[in-house]
Structure formats: C-alpha cells, structure tokens
Amino acid sequence: xxxxxxxxIRRLLIANRGEIARRIIRTAHDLGVGTVAVYADGDARxxxxxxxxxxxxxxxxxxxxxxxxxxxxxxxxxxxxxxAVHPGYGFLSENTAFADAVDKAGMxxxxxxxxxxxxxxDKLSAKRIIEEANVPTLPAIELKAGEDLGxxxxxIGYPVLVKASxxxxxxxxxxxxxxxxLEEAVAGARREARAAFGDDTLFLERWVTSARHVEIQxxxxxxxxxxxxxxxxxxIQRRHQKIIEEAPSPALDDPLRARMGEAAVSAARQxxxxxxxxxxxxxxGQDFWFLEVNxxxxxxxxxxxxxxxxxxxxxxxxxxxxxxxxREQLRLAEGEALGYTQADLGFDGHAIEARLYAEDPDRDFLxxxxxxVEWSPAPGARFDSGVESGSEVSQEFDxxxxxxxxxxxTRREAAAKLARALEQTRLQxxxxxxxxxxxxxxxPAFIAGDTTTDFIERVSPxxxxxxxxxxxxxxxxxxxxYAQAKRRALARTLNGFPSGWRNSRMPPERTTYRxxxxxxxxxxxxxxxxxxAMRVGEDERSVVVCAAERGEVDLEIDGRRVQMSVSxxxxxxxxxxxxxxxxxxxxxxxxxxxxxxxxxxxxxPMPGNVLATHVGVGDxxxxxxxxxxxxxxxxxxxxxxxxxxxxxxxxxxxxxQVDNGALLVMLEEQAAx
Length: 673
Description:
By secondary structure, the chain is an alpha+beta fold. The chain contains 16 helices and 42 strands.
C-alpha cells in the first residue's frame, strides 16, 4: 500500500471513561500514540485520567453534562490538538452527528463511517437493510402513534419483546407475556428510551424464549475487504444485559459457524462496513435470526482477542499473531488495509469473560454504588478494570467494576480458571455480583454448555455465598487476632509485654462479631507460650500469630497455617482469605440506641434520581400499584405498594436525588373488612 495513503495518528482523544478508556490508552501507548482523556467531576481521580498523557475536565456531573455533550468533547479535541477520536462503546460511540463533526473538524474517527452508523442506528431500518442481504430476521412491527397495541402483539404472537429502535445495552426493552402487561410495558420502555437515547420510537419483535445470543466479530477496511473473527456467545444475561461471554460458542459446529460468519460478512458488505463491529444473532438449534449490528467495539471483545490467531507467511517464515482489536481499529483509521484474508484466520482454545458489577444479586441485581475499599486482582486471568482501591463507583454511570477474562485449552478449564480468579480476587467495600458469577461458572448446567438466554431464571444459580463452619471461624479469628495485634502496637504503656499478658489469671477477652445475620461470641486468652486459647462460637481452637502487620495476618490455627488480608472500615473488618471475602462487624460492648423502624415506610433500595411520582398524599392504592420510579446507573426501578392502603406522606418529588435507605413514601394499610 502506498505510504502517502496512510495518515499516522499522533494524538488520540478517548471520548469515554473507565475500563474501556484504560484499554484504549494501553494500546495507543504501545503504538507510540499520545492520548487525551476527558472526564466528569466524579471521575477526576479515576485511573484512566492519570494514565492518559493529558486530561481535560468536562465540568459536569451527569452523562448528559459530560460524555454525551458533543460540543464539550469537540472543544477538548481543539484544546489538546487531538487528530483522532476513539469513542469506545456507549456514550457517543454510535452517534452519527458526533462522527460527522469529528470528520468535519479534520480528525480521524476510529470507527465505521457515519453512513454505516446511521444505517444501523435505527433497528427497524437496519432490519430492512439486512433483509436485502438475504440474512434472516425476526418478525417486527413499529408502534406508531395510534397503533393498536393488542392487535400488533397478536399478529406477532406472545411472548413479544418491546424494543427501543435507537436502543442498546438492554435499555428500552421489556418482555411481555400477555395483553394485560402490554400497555404499561410500552409506557415504561418509551420513558426509558427517551431518557437514554433521546428517541422513544418502539417496535414489537417476536421473543424467542429459550434461545442463544451469538454474535460475530467483523473487521473491514476502506478498500472493501471484510473478514469475520468467529463468534462469541453472550447468552448469560440479566435485564437483557450480558454478564458472561465466551468464545467460541459451545453450540456451534463448523458448518453452522461458517453459515453465521458468511451472513455477518454479507451484512457488513451490504452497508459498506469498515473498522471493528459486531453482528448479533439469536440462535435456536440450527436456525438463526439477525438482531442488530453494533457499529463499535464491543464490551466483550477480549474473549475474541484471547483465542483468535492470525497466520501468515513473511520472509519465508510462518508467523502466528494474536489480534489486538484496538490496534486493528487504529490501523484501519490511519488508512491501512486489513492485510489478511479469512483463510489466514483461525482460533485456538477457549476464553470466557465475566463482568464484575457493583450490584446486589439478592435484590434482583439492583445497582449498589459505593467505594471500592480493597481491590487486588488475583493472578492467572486478564483484568480489564476501571478501578483501584479507593475508587468510587458512582450512581451516575454504569456499575461495572471490571471484566475478568480467562483463556485455556478447553472450555471446562477456562470456566474453572475464571471461577478461581474471581474467588481469589480481593473486592471489598461494596456489594457486587462476584459470588453469583462464580456459582454460574461452576454450575453443572453451564459446564454442560446449556447456556440459553433464560439461563438465570431457568437454572437459578446461587446469588450469594456465605462463609460457614471452619471458613467463617477462620475469618473471625483473623479479624480478632489482627485487631488485638493492632491495639497492642498502638499501646503507649507496657508495650514490651506480649499482647494479653497478665501477672494473674484473669477472665478472657470477650467480644461479639456479626457476620451475615449471625452474631458470634468470641473469647480469647493469651498463654505463656505466646499462643492464644480461643473460642469462636462453640469452636475451641489454639492460635499462634506468626505475623500481623501492614494489613496481613499469618496464623497457625490448630496446626494449620493460614494467611489472610485484613483491613478496618469503621466498625467493620474486611477479611480476605482462601475461602474468599468476608465482611465482619465488631459489635459494641454496650448497647447503642438505634434508629426505630418506621411502620408503613418505603425506603430507597439504592441511591438514585426520582424519575417520576405516580401518587400524592391522600391517594388510595392497591397492592402492586406503581408509586414512583427511581433511576440509577442507567437502570430504572419501580417502587410499588406492598399492600392495599392510602398514602399518608410523600417525601420526594420528580428530579430529587435520594440516598440508599432514604424514606420515600408512608402508607397506611387498609383495615381488613
């Protein structure tokens, strides 16, 4: 290729945040490209900001005020002399106007053409275009003004999926089983789509209850060359959002893989696609249907990177390379051709990715923002993360903490390797879905490859893991021994004596710890040989503290050597050991007056913004009736009446920000007849 057609990128602005911003910065620096980060107020101390060569404050708190503000991002480009923009995924990554503005400003857009983005941005028009390429699609009906909802749903057949035409990431989507649910589902999806995308166009699509979500990674250049990089399966989902992805799919054989790959390439050629993208399909047996084209890099791209191999002959040698998809995007944006064909591509082994989220699986995966007090990734896996110890997971943005990826020769080995990496990672200070991910990866149904989109509802993996028996006693022992060692180290008098030493026989030290819902009495006495006689609940044990410093405690418990990490947050002890993480509360020795329960009070299950209120003081309500809607981390949560009654107090209004546990509504229960 003539060198005068290639325009090297010298300074790249990343119009994104978190783990994907760090991911792009890493590859750009490896290629010798300078980087610029932009950031919201709450991200000022985030790792991606300090890792970029230059960072520009967008002077705002919310997505709309920062990462979605085209003018602010373009102004940052001008201030820093950026000659290219990488949008990552989400935010402005599929915004045609932004892509056009970048191009008009004389910068390179790291992604497909704005024409391709526009063609695929509206899912209804995308379906019509893809049908022209002879790719199968599911039946769909646009919900225009005055549309008879019931008739449209009957025409498609229940269950139906209410879907935002401009949507993505599971937002603006509702599965409807009957006419009774349809009107409310459409209203909720319109509201969510309008807030997330500024476009509330909806359509109904046939819902395939038990199918697989399989997507094909594509790459194209500006010279008409297109290849696919095989498939990823993303069937393990909650709220239509992926949480576990893998490559290759356990459901595809070589003939089906070839058919789906050819369909994806046909779709890409139909729209003149360049850069990296993904063609998504639903798969049921040997039948598959087009869902959408994501005209950007995907969240789950690492599993493709971990298995795809590029084989070429150069200077008489056979070269086998791993593909870096961000590198490929940058090369193609600079004007290079792909330089390889489908025949040069293959894959090796199996890779699985799990998305670690700040959310509470026990409460239907509600977002759980907060501070990452301790973050220490385990060895043996790839971690693409946006956090460090002390990072804040804000309610303003997606609650993802990290993506964890494991690669191995076989699928079973990859699942086990990933589960262990998650178990051994220290993640403390906020609720998260780690235990649920581990339970899923170790479930026999997952190991068997029985991974359809209804997996969570159908299989119901454990949503949390409670330490029990010896593991729980060990965690409490670590907390108690570290606490006494720390107190001894801070003692100002008699600090040369062993901890707990007495010149006469005295009662043992006593305290009580709470772990989960259980209160465990603990007592220990220092012996003259330096060990401790200890009782944890009913468990008597001999403990030797081999070392206890800088957050680490090395114990010998009844002859077993155990090392654990311990840190204090207020009255809580965060312990990490071989059995995983534990949060242990040290109870005060004297009663402390607590807050009284408020009878009939409904509180916020998460911090967020009050999107809408549907009742007022004095209104009568029925059990299950919608009272108000909260929004946080791109998700809406409905607060409904738990019983028949009347509203006696309403403590919030539309637009209010509320903290977790804030009192929202007071209800008085209707007396039984």
